[in-house]
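Quick one before lunch.
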Amino acid sequence: MVVATGKSILNGIAIGKIKIYKAPVYDINMNQIEDVEAEVARFDAAIEKAIKQQGILYEKAKKDAGEESAGIFEAHQLMLEDEDLQDAAKEIITSQKRSAEYATKTAFDEYAQMFAEMDDPYMKARSADLLDVETDVLDFLMGNDTSSMQGTEPSILVAEDLAPSETVKLDKSLLLGMITREGSSNSHTAILARSMNLPSLIQCKDIDDSWDGKMAILDGYNSCVYIEPTDDLMQSLSAKHAEDVKKLALLQELKGKPSVTLDGTSVHVYANIGGPSDLGSVNENDAEGVGLFRSEFVYLNSKEEPTEEQQFTAYKRVVETLAPKLVIIRTCDIGADKTIDYMHLDKEENPALGFRAIRICLTRKEFFKKQLRALLRASAFGNMGIMFPMIISKWELMEAKALLEECKAELIKEGHKIGKYQLGIMIETPASVLVADDLAEEVDFFSLGTNDLTQYTCAIDRQNAKLERFSDTHHPAVLKAIQMTIDAGHRHNTWVGICGELGADPTLTETFLRMGIDELSVNAKSVLPLRKIIRSTDLSK
Ligand code: PEP
Ligand code: MG
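Model of the magnesium ion complex:
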């Protein structure tokens, strides 16, 4: 038996086989080749397979997400069939005697660059598509079987690191738990793991390829993983796992009961979600609403910028399904660790302090308006809140509000119905805390993004695993900032919630209640445990 330790981000136990997850490596053969004809034939075969694959993906996407979303794979097919592009690659093979991999990379990159330099935003966006299909052709040339990266049976996935864009694409039904060598506890990958209720270890320095396929127990309570555990350990941890399942079952009794303290103080307990696929967990865990719908996952899940119609469909589905419950949708918070190829964001020295969230939206107004229009249209179908992230100044809020009004006027003129909605902002920077009185006058609610608020208040990069020792989620400065925000909000009849990970910290629930918090929005699995704590808290004592 091997024991390896890490940092646990969810108390729970996962038992199953290990699957080593490796992103494919594209090691291109730069040498000259002998048999030009054979190389051209390899290229032709890879192109043919890639075209066929797009057809399969088209059918799958049509079934899962509808015809419009599937259209992208038709576009990919057309790109691969382009004779000029194919000829350009073959010319490199024949005249320069280079490998099919080298020719593919060179020709496709050149075409992608050409598209990226075009003025028309639609054509510009095709550049990312070309890079996407280039990867597909390279996978076929190099024999990378990306479809089997997760294996076929549910397993504990082990990886060096996982970006949010990789994590959202994982097949959840095949995941028992996750272990990474890198990662930090407040990263979006960790947040995703928590929302999927996956026992996970980060910073597990001893992960090893030899674990692949071996039986293991991930013990989130003790922050370790046992590879090929002894029978005794298997027995005791299986029993602990069964106990967890039983405890979870007991919490079911709290469904339908209010989140109210013994002395009668009510607080709303909402869930955080990433899209319509999380609707089931909101209902299963009896959340009273959604306090944070991270709309950027709608963008991350898409191969190209989602259209107004696609966004409208996603937002409407959530709002309509949960009505009359409140659903707060945060406008696109892209940037920092959440990068998207088709957004063509420049690499930055300090991405967390950079071009992200509302800063992108107020710069790329047409992009932002598409989302605002989709949100306003969806507002007619339920009880919605619209929330802007990363606001630091009042002028940003006023500009975002003006754009919202502009979209509203356009939509009314076009004959669309718009419902009532609440407007709010995230308070996730010290600047917004300090000017909270000014901001509160302009909104219905504040939602404290404690993940970023901690990062910016303490100057601790939430992505940097080396800083965990210095990171204190209970830092008095953060708690003081929370109290200041609640007080400022209440001075202006603005209700205040927490949607960062700290909201689910059971050791702080009573503190937040005493501070006067109105709402806690947490990962869906924490809703009932939190309700249990609230119902046994007595603030009169
Ligand atoms: C936060 O910063 O606390 C938050 C809820 O937003 P995100 O984690 O998506 O940055
Ligand atoms: Mg944030």
